[in-house]
Amino acid sequence: MGEIVVVGGGVAGMTAAIxxxxxxxRVTVLEKTDRIGGNLCAxxxxxxxxxxxxxxxCGTRRGTSLRSLWERIGMLDDSTKLRKTPYFYRSIGYGGExxxxxxxxxxxxxxxxxxxxxxxxxxxxxxAISALRAGGSVLSRAAALARYxxxxxxxxxxxxxxxxxxxxxxxxxxxxxxxxxxxxxxxxYLDGNADxxxxxxxxxxxxxxxxxxxxxxxxxxxxxxxxxxxxHGRVHTLLCANGRAYPAETVIFASDPHxxxxxxxxxxxxxxxxxxGDFGRGYPTxxxxxxxxxxxxxxxxxxxxxxxxxxxxxxxxxxxxxxxxRAFDHEPDFAPxxxxxxxxxxxxxxxxxxxxxxxxxxxKGAYAxxxxxxxxxxxAALVSAFPKFKGSLALLDVWTPASYVRYTDAYRGDxxxxxxxxxxxxxxxxTKIKGLENAYLASGWQSMPSGLPSAARSGExxxxxxxxxxxxxxxxxxxxxxxxxx
Length: 486
Prior knowledge:
Layout: E1 4-7, H1 11-22, E2 27-31, E3 42-45, E4 48-51, E5 57-58, H2 65-73, E6 82-83, E7 87-93, E8 96-101, H3 104-114, H4 119-131, H5 138-148, H6 153-157, H7 163-170, H8 179-190, E9 194-197, H9 200-214, E10 218-221, E11 225-231, E12 234-240, E13 245-247, E14 250-253, H10 257-260, H11 272-275, E15 286-296, E16 305-309, E17 322-327, E18 339-349, H12 350-362, H13 364-385, E19 394-399, H14 401-408, E20 439-441, H15 452-470
Parallel strand pairs: 1-2, 1-14, 2-10, 7-16, 14-20
Antiparallel strand pairs: 3-4, 5-9, 6-9, 7-8, 11-12, 12-13, 15-18, 15-19, 16-17, 17-18
Helix pairs in contact: 1-9, 1-15, 3-4, 4-5, 12-13, 12-14
């Protein structure tokens, strides 16, 4: 059989390639950068490693469908150590602090201590989270979904009186996101199904790359596809900026869909939802601004992720004065002896992302100055919250939505895909590209909510579709069916 060419070496594209190589298909992945993994990446600054993506991972518990998929593609293997943090994240402010602990009863006790007047709403929330855990009854799960599916995190927060509890609920990813995103993620964490793989994004990407190469798949780095040769409804050759041409029997487009359609393929071939723009109202894009620092390990007063006050810049209105701070004290190799890396993240909406992107394109000097101002504001907020940082805090890097556009072609700097607001039903983009006989789509944007699990499952589904349509099974292996849930 002919060559299957995958455009894009992110998690979706690599998963599709691995699933096809497993059954003996000839697969080549074309990746525009010099590395595999897409947003699953890390880079060095001043002797420290900055991890862009893998701060926790859904699907780490053995026996789950998602864990099986991670093992299949090499994301996790028997040698991968998993760190179990004491809490999902901790929120500080309004004269107190509260965490989503690994012990759900402790979370409930502390919520009640902080705000006895929110007793009824707290009981409902804790009950819903318990129902969404593995082994929860069908009826209790259905009741939880019926109660919280219509609510955004902002609407859920407004049901509570205490400002710290409100902040805790919107610290997760902002107020517009569906409340089920937080409830499902925390339930997975409680079940030991959202832990932290050692080595972070860089090691995970290396394991995935090795897995494909070990199966005989090929990876061509530095191969940005710029043009397609199409004849009689089939893509037969892909031309790259480096002058190379790749003939193909089948093509899987695993690049950002907004690159696939409009740059590589005509927009009229795009799924209807993409042609309408941002899926219409109710499905916003989201990105973030980041800053990484090194700090003396002895001065670190927290572990895992904490959320604190600090607006830090005019482009971070969506964060509503809150920022997430992530400590990498669990990775001693990420920093020199005696040091630890911490990273700050502030969520921004599509309009704020556009402002950063436009500034970077219009005036590089002004863009650099705005990043410096952001770093100064973040530094001040960190020192205010943690005075011990004053003498040892050192800036490593700042990256913005414009950085994601530059390195990954991310639409509006969005590395998460469209997010699901409360009271909205998830949308899914089709796998097959209409109008082309041999072209398929694999992307974390295809289903909601997005992220690494959605990207991997998209790649798996696309590989299954390719094999089924080609009637190319394997005599010793039955195709796996994708399943919903962690």
